[in-house]
Structures are given as structure tokens and as C-alpha cells.
Amino acid sequence: MMRSRHSVPLSLALALGAQALLLDVHGQCANDNALVGAAITPPCPGSTTAPCVQGGQYALVNVVAGNVYTFSTCGGAAFDTQITIYDNGGGGSLGYSDDACGVQSTVNWTATFTGQLRVLVDLYNCANNGTCATLTINCVLPPVPPPNDNPCGATPLTVNTTCSYSSSSNLGASTTAGPPAPGCANFGGGDVWFTAVVPATGRLVFDTNVGDITDSGMALYTSTGGCAGPFTLLECDDDDSGNGLMSFIDRSGLTPGSTVYIRVWEYGNDTFGGFEICAYSPPPPPPMTGDDPCGANPLPVLASCVPLTYSNIGASATAGAPAPGCGLYAGADIWFTFTAPANGMVTIESSTGTMTNGAMELYSAPSCAGPFTSVQCNDDAIGFMPRIDRRCTPLTPGQVYYIRFWGYNGQQGSFNICVFQGSLGTTVPEDCQGAATICNSQSFNNNTTNTGCVADLTAANQGCLTAGERQGTWYYFSPSAAGTIGFTIAPAVPTDYDFAVWGPMASVTCPRPARRCAALGRLRSDLRAAGMVRPIFPKVRAAIAG
Question: Distance between CA atoms of 531 and 472, rounded to whole angstroms?
Fold first, then answer.
């Protein structure tokens, strides 16, 4: 998959490259400095200093392969320094720094050999001087490779029916040779391994979650020879998890009882640390029932939503009922029935299972043989799943109603559905007349799935809210004096909120043309498409006349 995220740094690099033509650019200094003092053997782990290295001199440092060294003049020099490092045995520059901390320098280097290293200090630009600089040398031992650094040390994952994350880390991980290259997510090594035993269903789902690592890749393998291979690559994934840029694999048709291998790495191998992973196998959906109205599944009408799980896998199209008026109907529908309660106020709500995009239509009919009259059709009320709210327009008490449910454009799978009884006062906060009053600098929260009972917004007053009413909530506030007011909308999870402000008004008028309005949904989509994945939410300041 091509990652739009990485097109953004590219465009920035091109812009900076154009500016670089105007700058005075310098590289590492030549290996022509004079030795100062005796060879230094820094403790590891630990730090030491060369207390006086002048511009045009070098310190000779004994290094050990694999150790991580930092050479720095930060805070220890009164002149503009440059640091360049060379193998004392010859060869080209191994590292260089200029202006890492103000006009001072720092080089971080992982030793590629055991021997002696020249650490050159120069006055910018590669010049000599007679002023001392303190060169600090820090050494850190290489991280110990994790036990699952290769397939034979792979961590077994417990296969549950739902995702239960366990913690892991790629700190110190190397690159595994032998198995086929993953082929996605900019694999550069630093991989760790896991195993899972395939359950009787033949399906396994692997998901990863952020920790120190926020961008992962994952590959799934089988092996005919255990951890020694040979390995066969089945699938590679980059960004399919719901957890930002983390990876996700859902694979069916695996051999029950066999062991599969999972390889996880950080995108580009430039970040190391913790992450989370899980393996699970969702239970198979219940057998399909309710393929036609006369076999409809009865739903209880309860005081609150108690989801019941059903499946439309294998369902056929129903003839006789009017064609659905929403949701790109393509057959594979199943039916439900319920009896309206005494106040007629019900909410029919669905949620995802293996089906992630559904639709439903509510019908009245004298019997399961029809004729059917459409009452309401809905698609995409809760994410991509439907919801029908009949609190504002109650159904006929005691009457039997039918629900037709299908997957958008023929999608099949399991889903959850419930019917629960509602109640409604004379006004609701989703309507302008039922708005809540805000006092002082208080914080408040809300989560609505209703549009209210009154169509408050029209083309004359909606301002930039051109989509009309979409599960909004109304609030009143009254400034105590003229000035500037501000508020911040901060969703608990990334989502798209728009707003409008009406007023000022002496008494509530619902509503006049908006005074201030912002609909950032399109902007937010464009930012995400460009790879700027941090959600942006409106922070508002408006001048109010007292």
C-alpha cells in the first residue's frame, strides 16, 4: 500500500532543498588534526572527558564494537566547534556534527569495530585555534536482544475470542535472515517474532497497538520445518489497524492445529521500544434465521439496549416487500419483528460484528404476508451502521412492526441489534428550545445520537452547516460584559465536530442566521489525506457585544 504519510516529508524536503541553495553549506573536516594527550578508554557504561582539546586537535579514544558512544562539546566550549570522527587506522569520515546545541556539536555513533577512534575538534570552518574545549565522551552498552529476536525464540500468543493485548518490545532487536522479506511497511530490520496455533475455525486475527512504537509493519508466515523454516509469506500489512498507523491481519483458511509465525517491526527501523499485540479468533456467527418476513426473528422491547447477535450469511433477497429506500440494497436481507409499546416510542439500534456497513428499513403490515408499508429507512447513523429513533414520531401502540436488515451493497456477516423503549419530555437538548444553559467557565460533555424532534436548521440560518442537523446539541450562554469569549471542542475520540454561534438576542429565538460558523470536516479529511494524522478540532473565539 502506498503511504500518503510519507509524501509530506518528501514535499518538505523539496522545499528545504530549494532554500539550501541560498545557504553556505559545509561538511566534515579533513583528517589532518594533531593528537592531544594519551589514548582515552571511557568506562562503559559511563562518561569521561578530555578537558582541553583545541581547534585543530583530536582525542584518541579506545572503542569496543557494538557500544554506543556520544562525543560532545555542548556546554564545554567558548568557540564555534565542529566534531568529525575517523578510524585511527584510516578511511573516510564515520560521523560529523556542527551546531547540534547552539554553535556546539554532538556526534552519536555505534562502534562498528574494536580499536581506536580519532575524535577531531575544529573551529568553524575546519580551522585551528588556541582555546580549550571540553570534550565529553559517554558510552552506553548495546541493548540486549529480546528473547523473540528470531523465530526459534518466538513468543507464543494466546488465541482468545476477542483481542486481549499483551506487551512486547523491539528494543535491541536485529534483522532476521532467512525468511522471505515482508515486502511492505518499509522493512529495515529490528523485527521480533510471535507464534499462534490455528483454532478449529481456521481463522486468526492479529492486531497491534501503539506504545513507544506508533507505526508498525506485520507479516504472517507458515513453515514446514518449524522455527528453522523454510518459511512461506502469506500476508504483509502496514496500516490496517484501527490504532493509527499500526498493522492488522485477518486471515481465514489456515490449517487448524498448525502453528503460524508473525513478524513485527517498526516502519523504517528508526524507533525502538514497546508496543502491544493480540491474536484472536472471533466465534463463528450464529446460523442465519429470519430469511423472510414469516420467519422473522422476534425482538423484545426492553428498557435499554441489550444487543442480540445475528448473521445474514447465506440469506437470500426477499420478494414482495417494497424495495428499500436507502442503503444500496443488493439482497441477503433478514427480518425481525416487534410489538410497539404503550407509548409507541422505540429506538432500533445496530452495531458492527463482522459486518461493518449495514442498513435497515422499518415496515408496518397487517401480517407477515403483507402488504408492507415503509415507515422509515436508515443507513450510517452510528458509523456505517443504522439506527431508527421513533421517540419524536411514535409508532402505533400495540401494533406489530417488521424490520428488514441487510449489508450495504451485499455485505454479509454478523451484527448486533436491539429495540428499546424511549421516553421524551416536551423539549430535548438536540432541539434549540431544549438547549442547556452554560454558566461561568464550566466544562461539560455530551454524546448524542439523536437529531431532536424539530428541524431547527434551514438554508436561511444554518450558515456553513450545509449538511443540516446531524446529531447536534444546543447550548445557551449569556456574557456578563462586552468582550471576547472562547471555547474549545475536544472530542474524547477523533471525530468531526462543526459548530455555529447565533446571537446576540434579548430572548431565545430559534435560530436566526449564524453569527459565527466553522465546518472543518473537509479540511480535516484533506489533512489526513496528506498524512497529517493528528486530529484538529475547532478552538473558537468570538467577539460579543454586551
Answer: 29
Between the alpha carbon of residue 430 and those of residues 422, 424, 520, the distances in Å are 15, 12, 21
Cα separation, 532 vs 244, whole angstroms? 11
**Measured between alpha carbons, how far is 374 from 370 in angstroms, rounded to an integer?**
11
CA distance 258 to 224: 10
* pLDDT 10s digits, 358-389: 999 999 999 999 999 999 999 998 889 999 99
> For residue 62, what are the β-bridge partners?
116
Q: Report in angstroms the alpha-carbon separations of 129 from 100, 101, 134, 183.
A: 20, 20, 14, 52
The answer on pLDDT for 187 being more than 80 is yes
Burial grade of 75 (CB within 10 A; 0-12, 13-18, 19 or more): exposed
DSSP code, position 13: H
Residues 337 and 133: their CA atoms lie apart, in Å, by: 84
pLDDT digits (tens, 9 = 90+) for 417-437: 999 997 766 567 777 777 778
For the entire predicted model, the pTM comes to 0.54
DSSP states along 401-418? EEEEEEEGGG---EEEEE
Cell numbers 579506545 correspond to 62
Which DSSP string corresponds to 77-105?
A: BSS-EEEEEEETT--SEEEEEESSBTTB-
